[in-house]
Amino acid sequence: MIKAITNVSVYDFYDFYDDAYVLFSDKIVGIGRMADFEDLGYEKTDGKGCLMIPGLVNGHTHIYSAFARGMNVPYHPANFQEILDQLWWKMDRHLDLKMIYDSGIVSAVDAMKNGVTTMIDHHASGLDITGSLKTLKKAVCEDALMRGVFAFETSDRFDVNKTIEENRGFTQNYHTPFTGGLFGLHASMSLSEATLTKVKLALGDRPIHIHVAESEMDQEDCLEKYGEWVINRLRRHGLLNPGSLLAHCLHVGDEELNIIKEQNCVIAINVSSNMNNGVGLPNLRAFRNKGIRVIAGNDGLSSGMALEYQNILFSAHLKDKTPTEFGLEDLKKIINDTYGYASERLGIGLGRIKKGYAADFLLLPYVPPTPMNQNNAMAHLFFGLFPGFKPQQVFIGGQAVVKDYEVNQTLKRKYAVAENSARILWENIEKEEAK
What we know:
The chain is of the alpha/beta class. It has two domains: 3-54 and 351-404, Urease, subunit C, domain 1 (Roll); 56-346, Alpha-Beta Barrel (TIM Barrel). Helix content is 41%, strand content 20%. The protein is built from 14 helices and 17 strands.
């Protein structure tokens, strides 16, 4: 059945429509002015007083981080490696399939309520490797009805053969408009030469998803052990397939940026996490000047992307020491490139309110206090809506997954019982600490 949103303002980071209608099923069927609307018995939703935008994409996240919220562990890191040792690696090695599923539900529900309709995840779990990505797919894509792209962080911390097979099998067997895979690697500093050789044998032409130079320690480790920078090492092993997703890239030089561009790889920036960890900020000016595609993620630090968009702009102004070098048009390009990358991974058009694109969109109550038009719609969104971003309704594939700010009762129940998994996880960490 064709549905209609009527009397709505629409902005998709390209075009702005005032007093419009949108027709959709699982994809957008049409869009036009209300003056031209002909009611053919559609199932209608009145969008008066709302702005419609495309559902947001989180270009790099860690779903399991949902269970770090409020976790109390000894935490006095002096450097980035100690952040991993004292928090993230302490947690992920205790994750089993039940915890993975429950963290997937929590992350998906929180993400949808914050307007995120697609997540690109970087997963790690020590207790259960095999089946972990399928479990995330079950929680995020089947039960919560989101779109997701998943990868397992291959690392010498785990059974390397199992992690390689988990990535190989998932990327080979799951590719739909709702589910896709990347071949996951943690970071150069946790990957031996032998492991990278094994990965190359299994990789084929699949793109990888890896942390690159998130801290200077990654580069220092690579230089000390192998006499080269991280990107050079990945290229030497033949791992930089086109479309590979390189998260962070804070401490990469000019030569490495040239390689990233030549290999047609993509950088995923996560500025809020970078600031939180005190590891630096991406050189967006250099990325732009090299013509490298840049997408936006949040590294699992929060549930949404609106804050991330704000911090991208503000941190760029601080790093450049000027408010004019990086502007809203630059931010729009990152947002649209994030849609484009997710579209490639899933084989469906995301990010436009336009005929033929997926019917993934949000309705945000907004009555503009100043004139809103094609030229200033992005400024209204950034300064008027991002600071208190909360969609009233969220649609994915034409289905309403958030209504009046809430998900359905089934997901609410699943969300509530997830607390028990978090409790067990924390208790297991405490037992380890006590040994």
